[in-house]
Amino acid sequence: MDTIFALASAQGKAGVAVIRLSGPQAHCAANALAGGGLPPRGMCVRTLSAPDGSRLDEGLVLTFQAPSSFTGEDVAELQIHGSLASVNAVLGCLSDMDDLRLAEPGEFTRRALENGKMDLAQVEGLADLIDAETEAQRKQAQIILAGALGTLAEGWRRDLIRAASLLEAVIDFADEEVPTDVTPEVRMLTSGVMDELTREAIGVRIAERIRSGFEVAIVGLPNAGKSTLLNALAGREAAITSEYAGTTRDVIEVRMDLAGLPVTLLDTAGLRETEDHVENLGIELARKRADAADLRVFLTDSPGLLGVSRQIDDIHVLPKSDLRAAADGGISGKTGQGIDRLIDDISCVLSSRATSHGIATRERHRIAMTKAVESLASAQAVLESGPDMYDIAAEELRSAIRSLESLVGRIDVETLLDEIFASFCLGK
Ligand SMILES: Nc1nc2c(ncn2[C@@H]2O[C@H](COP(=O)(O)OP(=O)(O)OP(=O)(O)O)[C@@H](O)[C@H]2O)c(=O)[nH]1
Ligand SMILES: [K+]
Ligand SMILES: [Mg+2]
């Protein structure tokens, strides 16, 4: 096994930079820089020197001993001053050492997975945590990283193994009298797992939104003040505004953190009948994106006229409230009136959706769970045909178990790894 090293903290100037080494030569290499005598597990302040004796930096050296480390291997971490030159000098010395090489993106985590320090879902959770920008994303990633999906999957697996073994007991004793009918218990176990899997699979759509952001489209007639409102919400001039009706044609996207939720606001072309070819293209795009969005804010008192389908949670507000006499509930992108309330309304709708999801977060999880549900449904169906079909039912249960095992990477790991680790940054 190679010993790998990489800068584990972000590139660029910082107070401290962390260089991580993992593998059989990790302690040996750290000792070479630190002048020897490091404990197998501990923390020391040391002067780090190059092979010619010249001083590299003074820093903190942490050592971890296999298997009690992030990767499960011998690990050393060098905390040095976070300048580009200091980091490059130390990395240069490490790459000159025999048996050491720069880690590939995600390679430390890959080793942690291979050494059983985390399961595949936890690896995904770690990737999400590193990418997390909002509080909702952070919380969701922490739940997965803590191993919650693995715990759930283990419970389902246990129930299905019990169900399969009940059937197998009947198959094995087919020639003898079997005193009890096992089907009620098999049915109960499989139905329980199916219900939970179905609920989790539905929740993935919401969890995906928390990872990638909810889309909120601002929709209305031309000149309603959509772009002005977008700019007010974004706190910057993201879109052009003017008194000319038909200013916005393309969809303008602004990503923001709305009360802890990741939201992409969409400013769209004003909706109307027009002869202008380019404006019509914009209107067509606006309708399409508004329909596909998670939530629409209609900036009008007559949303029915716009040709965009309206859904139950959608918000509609009267624009340009500053021009109306003591208008209640309206909004003004110009004066800021009603903006806070709109933000509250949007985050209220989205957070009620955000809390209704379960533990699973990815399309990969959804597919594995849906496959398991299909196998369980087949198992239940053939169970009806009596003990002659129990071997087929048991095979369907085993196939459901394999689907659940793929959730946490007990099987099919190799095919998934490259895809998952491709999203990792160096040093993780
Ligand atoms: N008084 C007042 N004027 C506003 C308000 N919002 C926008 N306006 C003005 O109304 C005009 C149209 O604003 P925009 O933000 O460009 O409207 P829009 O809905 O994006 O228009 P299109 O992109 O053409 O569909 C501009 O002259 C704005 O200054 C508001 O809340 N109060
Ligand atoms: K306009
Ligand atoms: Mg506009």
Automatic annotation (TrEMBL):
User: Where does this chain mainly localize?
Assistant: cytoplasm
Task: Keywords in alphabetical order, please.
Answer: Cytoplasm, GTP-binding, Hydrolase, Magnesium, Metal-binding, Nucleotide-binding, Potassium, tRNA processing
GO MF terms, alphabetically ordered = GTP binding; GTPase activity; metal ion binding
Residues the entry annotates as binding GTP: 223-228, 242-248, 267-270
Question: What is the annotated quaternary arrangement, including any partners?
Answer: Homodimer. Heterotetramer of two MnmE and two MnmG subunits.
Where is this protein found? Cytoplasm
Q: Give the first-level EC class, as a single word.
A: hydrolase
Source domain of life is Bacteria
Which PROSITE patterns did the record assign? G_TRME
Q: Where does (6S)-5-formyl-5,6,7,8-tetrahydrofolate bind?
A: R20, E77, K117, K428
Its biological purpose: Exhibits a very high intrinsic GTPase hydrolysis rate. Involved in the addition of a carboxymethylaminomethyl (cmnm) group at the wobble position (U34) of certain tRNAs, forming tRNA-cmnm(5)s(2)U34.
Q: Which cofactor does it need?
A: K(+)
Name the chain's protein. tRNA modification GTPase MnmE
**Alphabetical list of Pfam families matching this protein:** MMR_HSR1, MnmE_helical, TrmE_N
Q: What is the lineage of its organism?
A: Bacteria, Pseudomonadati, Pseudomonadota, Alphaproteobacteria, Rhodobacterales
> What cellular component GO annotations does this protein have?
cytoplasm
NCBIfam families according to UniProt: PRK05291.1-3 (NF003661), small_GTP (TIGR00231)
Domain TrmE-type G stretches: 213-351
Family membership noted in the UniProt record = Belongs to the TRAFAC class TrmE-Era-EngA-EngB-Septin-like GTPase superfamily. TrmE GTPase family.
Single GO BP term: tRNA wobble uridine modification
Q: According to the UniProt entry, what is the EC number of this protein?
A: 3.6.-.-
Q: Where does Mg(2+) bind?
A: S227, T248
**Cofactor remark:** Binds 1 potassium ion per subunit.
Q: Which InterPro entries match?
A: AAA+_ATPase (IPR003593), G_TrmE (IPR031168), GTP-bd (IPR006073), GTP-bd_TrmE_N (IPR018948), GTPase_MnmE (IPR004520), MnmE_dom2 (IPR027368), MnmE_helical (IPR025867), P-loop_NTPase (IPR027417)
